[in-house]
Design a protein that fits this description.
The chain is mostly beta strands. It contains two helices and nine strands.
Length: 159
């Protein structure tokens, strides 16, 4: 496995340390990471996403969906089955699991539903007004625009 050095990135940028940490974490995780249970991530709209996890054999009470800061944690633990059964073949895995999804800034969970053995978690990215692009008025002539309004005085520029 290759080791990447992100030191030049830290020296040349400000505020991108989370991105570098995330890249470092992704590149250093083991290749043999568990793929159970299978899941899909889809983009349903401009700023909307859905994570669908195959959770056959689990009831609503067995499942847990939690958002902590910038992480979505989907976990399940099967309650002990009191009835003893004799299986000739057991192909439906109901072992406990925990899946973590790292979320971008301003992404939040809007809801979760469990139907037909699939757990659907809906997410939306809500960019705060302060971070949305805004149009800056360009003043003409010698006037100066202040907070979207034209100044009443003319500003002279001396060379």
């Amino acid at each position: 496995m290759r080791a990447y050095d992100f030191a030049p990135l830290y020296r040349a940028t400000v505020g991108f340390d989370r991105v570098a940490d995330l890249m470092d974490r992704v590149l250093t995780t083991e290749v043999n990471q568990s793929t159970y249970p299978p899941y899909n991530i889809e983009k349903t709209d401009e700023d909307a996403y859905r994570i669908s996890v195959a959770v056959a054999g689990f009831s609503d009470a067995d499942l847990n969906v939690e958002q902590r800061e910038n992480a979505l944690i989907v976990s399940a633990k099967k309650a002990n089955d009191e009835a003893e059964r004799t299986y000739l073949h057991r192909g439906i895995a109901t072992r406990a699991f925990e899946k973590r999804f790292h979320l971008a800034d301003h992404v939040r969970v809007t809801g979760a539903s469990h139907t037909d053995g699939m757990l659907h978690v809906d997410l939306v990215r809500e960019v705060p007004e302060a971070l949305k692009p805004r149009t800056i008025e360009i003043a003409s002539g010698g006037t100066k625009a202040i907070e979207g309004k034209k100044a009443s005085k003319k500003v002279s520029v001396e060379a």
